[in-house]
Amino acid sequence: MTYLLGLTGSIGMGKSTTAQMFRDAGVPVWDADASVHALYAAGGAAVAPIGAVFPDAILDGAVSRPALRTIMQSDATALDRVERIVHPLVAADRAAFIAAKTDPLLVFDIPLLFEGGAEAWLDGTLVVTVPPDIQAERVLARPGMTQAQFDMIRSRQMPDAEKCSRADFVIETRTLDDTRQAVQNLILDLTGPDHA
Asked: Which of 97, 81, 111 is nearest to 7 (CA)?
């Protein structure tokens, strides 16, 4: 029996680092963002259907994210139309990932996990978190990031406290060592002899 664990967390909470710790421990990780990138790349399954609806979004045989953003800013229906194309393709990619694995634990790195209702098909959810001051320090240290951009991104994400209250598991990512230990403990809890 494979346990499907969803991993999420707001910007600057350490989600990507935590996902890598699962990979380092030998746990397969499906990355929603990477799936979309592959669909948008030249030869990707989303290129032709998006090009049919928004020809200006295609550049050098791939979906241009900047061009798509420009279209979305001027067309209020564009995001819904793109999501109707992309969501089934992402779901198919995720299903293929699950079908190809026999591991006891699979992790799904999904930025908008609760916002998109993914907890419905997962066995459990993990939220990574840090106090707001550490989150702000991490995000504002990123090249080119401004307070205004950070505030805008945060306004689109479910509040951290709500994510934590809805999660089955919460890991605080203050230090790499503590986070790695928490990941190891969770892997043992979910795949140990009790779950065989």
From this structure: 111
Is 17 marked as a binding-site residue?
Answer: yes
Q: Do 160 and 112 share a structural domain?
A: yes
Encode pLDDT of 4-19 as tens digits: 999 999 999 999 999 9
Q: Which domain holds residue 62?
A: 31-100
CATH number at residue 159: 3.40.50.300
13 is in an annotated binding site: yes
Same-domain status, 110 and 166: yes
Binding residue per annotation — 14?
A: yes
Give per-residue pLDDT as tens, 160-190: 999 999 999 999 999 999 999 999 999 999 9
158 carries a ligand binding annotation: no
Query: If DSSP states are collapsed to H, E and C, what string results for 166-186?
Result: HCCEEEECCCHHHHHHHHHHH
Neighbours of 2 (CB within 10 A): 14
pTM score, whole prediction: 0.88
Number of domains in the chain: 2
